[in-house]
Prior knowledge:
The protein is mostly helical. It has 3 helices and 2 strands.
Amino acid sequence: MNLHIGTIRSVWHNNKPAMQRLIGLQSITFTNFDVGGSRIGAFGPALSLPIFDGGRLKSNLAGRDAYYDYAVEQYNATVIDALRDVVSQLVSLRAIEQQRALQREALDTADQAYLLALQRYQGGVGNYLQVLAAQVQLLAAERLQSDIDMRAFDADIGLARALGGGLIAQQ
């Protein structure tokens, strides 16, 4: 892209003087070509200025500058979207890790409650309904822990995708 803009600018500023020469024959009829006076020659400086092409060159340069600005803006928007996606995935991972820690505590508490209810039942102090109620709470805590783990795996995959990774399907 920059190469095209540089090329257009070089055409605009490439107005170097040059030396031109001309050698030839001049005659009204073909029979006078061999006469000494029919020979002509010229030598002198020449300068090329974009007097009549100035507007076209300016518009080409402005068009290329606008296209370059558009391409840079598109690139910047893509980078910003990618960074936004990465930040979103990182925030999700952080929130899931906090939920994971809290759920681990809840799971440990439910496990201790189940073991205590089982010990009470085996000792003859409690009934089996208390053991079943504690077991239901333990299973619910385990299910919630597995749901949080699944969301964490999904967030890890989302982060890998946001960082430019992806899944390549096997053929």
